[in-house]
Amino acid sequence: MVDGVPAVEAVGLVKRFGGLTAVDHVDLRVDVGEVYGILGPNGAGKTTFLRMLFGLIRPDAGTLRVFGRTWAEAGPAMLDGVAGFIESPRFYPYLSGRRNLELLAGLDGGDADSRIDQVLDVVDLAGRAGDKVGGYSFGMRQRLGVAASLLRDPRLLVLDEPANGLDPAGIRDMRALVTRLAGSGLTVLLSSHNMDEVEEICDNVTIMRTGRVVYHGSIDQLRAQAPDPSHRLATSDDEQAMRLSAEHPAVSVTAHHDGGLALRAQTADADGYLIALGRAGVAVRALHLEIAPLESLFFMLTETDPATGSAPAGLPRQPRDLTGATP
Amino acid sequence: MTTPATTTPTAGPAAVRPRPVGRGRVIIAYRWEITKLVAQARTRATLAVCLIAPFVFVVLLDRQDRLPKDTLYGRWVHASGFATPLLILGFAAQWVFPLLTSIVAGDIFASEDQHGTWKTILTRSHSRSQIFWAKSLAAATFAVLVVTVLALSCLTAGVLLVGHQPLEGLSGTLLPPGRTAGLVLAAWATALPPLLGFTALGIMLSVLTRSSPAGIVGPIILGLLMQLYAFLNGADTIRHLLLVTPFDAWHGLFAAHPYYGPLRDGTFVSVAYIVICLAVAFTALRRRDITGG
């Protein structure tokens, strides 16, 4: 590996399916050692991008390099050091988990077969490795997918919505596993439609919407741009609470469409306002976070205005480079 | 889940043992295709039927007085055990051979679509070309194996249950048992080129339709349509270009003065089918976008 060569570099990448442009001039750069998130709602083009990365589909325009190599130059060798799965990992249901891994290790070559027991331990499937995959739960298949990826001893791990379809315990375990893998120095490229997941795991993020990049930068910079958190507030006297908000300019209090009040403010400002409510004899009966700041920004960036079919006015329509780095 | 201590990045792929390249990778993938076939109940059941069915067939024929006289060697099935494999060979050419080979050939590519496993195997270190040739080779292996098992089973069932009496050739001369056994096996061997033609046809349909039922049933229907055309006494040139015509090429072996023209022509036709079908399938697989699964 040449120093400074990014793990993944896409320039002007385009993929069309008939009249639909699934990936529209996407630029993206993932540096070695980074934990990078691709975020977007369903249909944003995340999976299409990852399929191009794995050579499963070919781009119509642009270039995609993995550790400096393109598919046209290197063929399957482009995937040396790369592992992961697209959407849910799939296996042969009539073979056991271990037999599936043996098959994949055989295709990988090298010493992949010597790691089968180790990777089964990593994903807690050693006890069920002899069972046919047809009898596995969704979560077990997901974990077997991670095991199959680790067999390749990858430098770049690509995971497409790894927590998708898992129960809460499975999501927790999967995130913990990805965090540990990332902590070991692995470059991780993770796609998700879940802002919390990306915020928890990733350093940098690209947000896609209808095939285009609408944001890329660090999670910290994204956080700085996020709007105030939105809470739903129930009080003993909503009218007085609205009047009191006038004395707190950093706080926005409006009538909530489902009853009660909507409170938008940074945490410190909200604290001051709530204390003032108490002092004024207005009891706070309920306060809960409705939309987290990053989630709110995610919706702003990715939701389509039903009237115009485009991003709401005032929101970024073009990719923004908040880092100042060339993507 | 435990700490993935074993997965700490190493120096990368260059640090591990050298990986096989080119044909070496095809052989590895071929070995795994064979392993997958062995693990499937359908392939095991097909081989078991090919092994057992001839014995059942001979026992049932032995218990009935009426003989299938309208079929070549049908009137000889009680007189010589060597007639049994030839009777079954003539019958199998109609639709059994296309069925036997397409059970694997028609499914071997489409099953990856069915299971959504293209992305699993194509994101490892093998190219589409290597996977294509490995699968095609595995389908051909199964075709040869299943016909070999059926041929040996038919011959064994006939000889064991009826006997090894001399058999009358198509010119009316009696053939001694030793020579007849060799001719019977040679006759079955002549079925291999068109059988592999049907294998290639199944592979092509499996790749193009991405559907196992279409890949399996398609060659059978096409085979029956070709048989129908042959029965209609249509243009002779077209009849010679049909993939079912070479299945009759063995008749020349049983003449008093053997003739091999149909065998030679049938082999050319079969090879043409194999080349064209595999070329279409190969191109389609290389060009397609793997979007499912």
Q: Topology, please?
A:
The complex is a heterodimer of chains A (327) and B (293).
Chain A: E1 8-17, E2 20-30, E3 35-39, H1 46-53, E4 61-66, H2 71-74, E5 82-85, H3 97-108, H4 116-122, H5 138-150, E6 156-160, H6 168-183, E7 187-192, H7 195-201, E8 204-209, E9 212-218, H8 219-225, E10 230-235, H9 238-245, E11 252-255, E12 261-264, H10 267-279, E13 284-291, H11 293-302
Parallel strand pairs in A: 3-7, 3-8, 5-6, 6-7
Antiparallel strand pairs in A: 1-2, 1-4, 8-9, 10-12, 10-13, 11-12
Helix pairs in contact in A: 4-5
Chain B: H1 23-39, H2 41-62, H3 83-92, H4 96-105, H5 110-115, H6 118-122, H7 128-161, E1 167-168, E2 174-175, H8 177-189, H9 192-209, H10 212-231, H11 236-241, H12 261-287
Antiparallel strand pairs in B: 1-2
- Number-wise, the strands of chain B total 2
Radius of gyration of chain A: 23 Å
The end-to-end distance of chain B, rounded to whole angstroms, is 26 Å
Distance between the termini of chain A: 20 Å
Give the largest interface pair and sizes.
Answer: A-B, 58 and 43 residues
- This entry's quaternary arrangement is heterodimer
Radius of gyration of chain B: 22 Å
Q: Architecture of the domain at 8-81 and 154-224 in chain A, according to CATH?
A: 3-Layer(aba) Sandwich
CATH C-level class of the domain at 8-81 and 154-224 in chain A is Alpha Beta
Annotation field: number of helices of chain A: 11
Order of helices and strands of chain B: HHHHHHHEEHHHHH
Portion in beta strands of chain A = 25-35%
Family (chain A): Belongs to the ABC transporter superfamily.
GO molecular function (chain A): ATP binding; ATP hydrolysis activity
Domain ABC transporter (chain A): 8-235
Protein name (chain A): ABC-type multidrug transport system, ATPase component
